[in-house]
Amino acid sequence: MAGHSKWANIKRQKARVDSVKGKTFARLSREIIVAARSGVPDPNGNFQLRNAVEKAKAAGIPNENIERAIAKGSGQLGSDGDNLEDIRYEGYGPGGVAILIEALTDNRNRTAADLRRAFTKNGGNLGETGCVSWMFEQKGVVTVGGAVAEEQLLEASLEGGAESYELMESGSTAEVFTEVSNLENLNQTLREKNLNVDDAELRWIVKTTVEVTEPDLARSLLKLMDALEDLDDVQNVTANFEMADELMSLSMA
């Protein structure tokens, strides 16, 4: 898909580090709480919750922690889960790069202050609602792992109502894109076609990208992205920059 940001690939690489830090546990637990609150507290009847639980299990979160998060979200452990709000923030990074931040928070003022501090310290600025969101569109994305024949992927994608797909350069992963409302159907169709579905999620996809070629700018951007993702309330960060793999590796070293 044109305009697909490599930041999705960076985040997959970083996830291994984040899991060591323990932030992944907290992030996924919050996802489970919100999913359980927004629908039935049963993964079999709640697609959002089922996805969150599958991610949590893949990250190694103990079953008892998952069950506790579901109970918290469904109100069985009190009203703590009701305090979480799903909020989107927008801003600019160095070089005018557009950045979208998805957060789950129980304190808007704290989260906004933390984000503003992270932007300011790393050469960016937190903007007003709507300042950059027009550069992105939300899509359903199903990630397929393992070697897959493109003909099989194309056939299954068409049957599932996909808009497009993208084969990663390694050849071992593919991403299939669809409208938000069709994500559950696409996910189920690909599974029924015996494709190895690793993940199904809603993701912000960039419409236009900014090419980053300067090493100093690349370092500044990745430092800002790290600072944003390290914040406790932040769930996802999406930006519209592209850079060569070599520059990306150098900047992350």
Query: What is the average of the pLDDT values?
Result: 86
Strand order of the largest sheet: 3-1-2-9
Supply the CATH superfamily name of one domain: YebC, transcriptional regulation domain
CATH top level of one domain?
Alpha Beta
The name CATH uses for the topology of one domain is: Alpha-Beta Plaits
Helix content percent band = 40-55%
CATH architecture of one domain: 2-Layer Sandwich
From the alpha carbons, calculate the radius of gyration and give it in angstroms: 18 Å
Subcellular location: Cytoplasm
InterPro entries: Integrase-like_N (IPR017856), TACO1_YebC-like_2nd/3rd_dom (IPR048300), TACO1_YebC_N (IPR049083), Transcrip_reg_TACO1-like (IPR002876), Transcrip_reg_TACO1-like_dom3 (IPR026564), YebC-like (IPR029072)
Keywords: Cytoplasm, DNA-binding, Transcription, Transcription regulation
Pfam families: TACO1_YebC_N, Transcrip_reg
Task: Briefly summarize what is shown.
It is found in: Cytoplasm. The chain has helices spanning 7-21, 23-38, 47-58, 63-73, 108-121, 150-159, 183-192, 215-229, 245-252; strands at 85-92, 98-105, 125-126, 136-145, 164-167, 173-178, 196-206, 210-212, 234-239, 241-243. It is α+β, with helices and mostly antiparallel strands and 253 residues long.
Written description of the protein model:
- This is Probable transcriptional regulatory protein AVDCRST_MAG92-3899.
- The chain is of the alpha+beta class.
- The chain has a domain at 85-134 and 208-252: YebC, transcriptional regulation domain (Alpha-Beta Plaits), CATH 3.30.70.
- The chain has nine helices and ten strands.
- It has helices at 7-21, 23-38, 47-58, 63-73, 108-121, 150-159, 183-192, 215-229, 245-252; strands at 85-92, 98-105, 125-126, 136-145, 164-167, 173-178, 196-206, 210-212, 234-239, 241-243.
- β5 and β6 form a beta hairpin.
- α2 (23-38) runs antiparallel to α3 (47-58), α2 (23-38) crosses α4 (63-73) and α8 crosses α9.
- The radius of gyration is 18 Å and the shape is globular.
- The two termini are 28 Å apart.
